[in-house]
Amino acid sequence: MATVRMIDIAVNFTDGMFKGIYNGKQCHVSDIATVLSRAWTAGVDRIIVTGGSLEESKEALTIAETDARLFCTVGVHPTRCKEFEESGDPDKHFQALLSLAKEGIEKGKVVAIGECGLDYDRLQFCPAEIQKKYFEKQFELAHAMKLPMFLHMRAAAPDFCEIVERNRSRFSAGVAHSFTGSAEDRDKLLSISNMYIGVNGCSLKTAENLDVVRSIPIERMMIETDSPYCGIKNTSAGIKFVKSTWPSKKKEKYDQECIVKDRNEPCLVRQVLEVVAGCKGISEIGQLSRTLYHNTCRVFFPQDLDSAADSLLAGHDPQ
């Protein structure tokens, strides 16, 4: 394996699968420590744990506190935005998010507001009007905390981009993660200053997806797994570019030396890097990883820009 350094910007460590629970059934022991060990060995050196609700954001912060290389987001996913009103006091709910974000910043762990945005594919969980109302509201969190936005956009590009543009002065930068949109959606996002696009296995499923990704400038891209979801499958158009593999076993035959079959995990961000390089015709994967690393530091770890990322771009490991 060529030496690369990567930051996985989206890992759902609060998901039950990392506790060994699948569809309510315990299949194996909780294994976050094992999963992390594999990630660090593969060249991942930071991970951002995703928060998608108030409770999940609390758990994400607790997990982030277990390792110096873990960080997290605080926010409410579009499909969960009913929680503001179901709490009985939306303002109090918002204040709880604000307090949690403040606490997390003081601990050096919270690096973004999110996951927030719009998801019109899953309106059965939350109507569009409620999604829009509380997406807009969460820009207040970013503004108050001076944080970037970790964003979700599915089947909602016109409304999403309109809301983002309207609030552009209230956040420093953002990433539209797990991007699966059209070339037109991509170009709308790229027209927003300081907006990056997060690519994972779901972004690389079809030949059309690869065409869209091919034209995302690498200076505006980040990579992620969104694990335990969004893995690169054997049926994915991008699979032909994958070079790194790990042994796998079914969850019922759990072996800590193997990844769990069909469960994505952070070490596999390496495959995303390989597919991006392959579909763009980039042979120097180390240089690609340095650019993506720099992008990620620019948005989420600006305090490290001078040392870590710039020396990486120069081809030297920081001391």
TrEMBL record:
InterPro entries: Metal_Hydrolase (IPR032466), TatD-like (IPR001130), TatD-type_Hydrolase (IPR050891). Pfam families: TatD_DNase (PF01026). SUPFAM superfamilies: Metallo-dependent hydrolases. The keyword Zinc-finger does not apply. Keywords: Hydrolase, Metal-binding, Nuclease. The keyword rRNA processing does not apply. A divalent metal cation 2 binds at residues 152, 177. GO terms for molecular function: hydrolase activity, acting on ester bonds; metal ion binding; nuclease activity. Gene3D superfamilies: Metal-dependent hydrolases. A divalent metal cation 1 binds at residues 28, 115, 226. PANTHER family: DEOXYRIBONUCLEASE TATDN1 (PTHR10060:SF15), TATD FAMILY DEOXYRIBONUCLEASE (PTHR10060). Belongs to the metallo-dependent hydrolases superfamily. TatD-type hydrolase family. This is TatD related DNase. It comes from Prunus persica (Peach).
